[in-house]
Structure formats: C-alpha cells, structure tokens
C-alpha cells in the first residue's frame, strides 16, 4: 500500500493523503472521487504521464513535486495537485 500526500498552503488544513493498494486502486476517503492513480506527471498538464504507477510501484522512485494522474469514478482522467511525497505502508496502513 502507498500513501500520497498532496501539497497545501500553510494556511490551509492539510488534505487527507491518497491511499492506494499496490495496483494504484484508491482506498479510503478519496475512493468516492477517484478509482485509481494511473501515474505521475512532471508538469500540471493533461494528456501526459511521465511515470506509470506500475513503474513507481516497482522502483519506489521519488514523486515529490510530481502531479498524480487519476481515473475518477466517472471513468475520466485528470491531473490533480502537486505531491509533497509518498510513503510505503504496511498492510494495516502504517508507514514502513
């Protein structure tokens, strides 16, 4: 499992991290909005994926500063906010 923390303004409340399984399927509170993370993009633009989720899952490459590309619950793709980083979680959701 993985946890992805979205960046936020210091005056804002920190958003819940996006939790996924090893296949990129979104779990928890974000699962009502997003089905899965497809990959990550270096810039905030549509139609491009620089790092596929499968590659990230194998290499655990840093995604800090990248933008997740997600499939939403309607089947549409979107690029969302910049990431502060990612953590690998154990089966009960604790960072390793």
Task: Identify the overall geometry.
Answer: globular
| SSE sequence, one letter per element | EEEEEHEEE
| Helix/strand structural class | mainly beta
Number of strands: 8
Helix content range: under 10%
Please report the distance between the alpha carbons of the first and last residues: 10 Å
Strands in their spatial order, largest beta sheet = 3-2-1-8
Largest sheet: 4 strands, antiparallel
Uncertain parts: none
Q: Overall mean pLDDT score?
A: 88
Number of helical stretches of at least 4 residues: 1
CA radius of gyration: 12 Å
Beta-strand proportion: 35-45%
Can you give a write-up of this model?
It is a single chain. This protein has one helix at residues 53-59; strands at 2-6, 18-20, 26-27, 34-41, 51-52, 67-72, 77-79, 83-88. The model has no long low-confidence stretch (mean pLDDT 88). The N and C termini lie close together (10 Å). It has 1 helix and 8 strands; from the N terminus they run βββββαβββ.
Any chance you could write out the topology, listing elements then pairs?
Layout: E1 2-6, E2 18-20, E3 26-27, E4 34-41, E5 51-52, H1 53-59, E6 67-72, E7 77-79, E8 83-88
Antiparallel strand pairs: 1-2, 1-8, 2-3, 4-5, 4-6, 6-7
